[in-house]
Amino acid sequence: SFRALCDHVPAFAPGCNNLAHVLMEDGRLDEALSAAEKALAAGGAQDEIYRETLEEIRSAIQSRKSRPGN
Question: What is the pLDDT of residues 33-68, one digit of tens each?
Fold first, then answer.
């Protein structure tokens, strides 16, 4: 699974980035943020993609915070 890959091989940025997307789609934004940060920290040729994922998750977190009742 992407989670096992990200947890045990955090330098595998594509797996962490994919996990971030899955978690974000599931509404688990804090976990998604952590996975996206690991992907970006690992770096690599797709750094810009990882940065976009991270920004998308941060935006979703901000949107959630700005909703009434949060």
Answer: 999 999 999 988 899 999 999 999 999 999 988 887
Instruction: Tell me the C-alpha distance between 11 and 28, whole Å.
Output: 22
Helix (H, G, I), strand (E, B) or coil at 61: helix
Q: Where do we find the tokens 């998308």?
A: 56
Is there a contact between 20 and 32 (Cβ–Cβ < 8 Å)? yes
Residues contacting 41, CB < 8 A, separation 6+: 10
pTM, two decimals, is 0.85
Question: Which residue reads 């993609």 in tokens?
Answer: 49
- Helix locations, the chain, DSSP H: 2-8, 13-25, 29-42, 47-66
Burial class (CB in 10 A: 0-12, 13-18, 19+), 10: middle
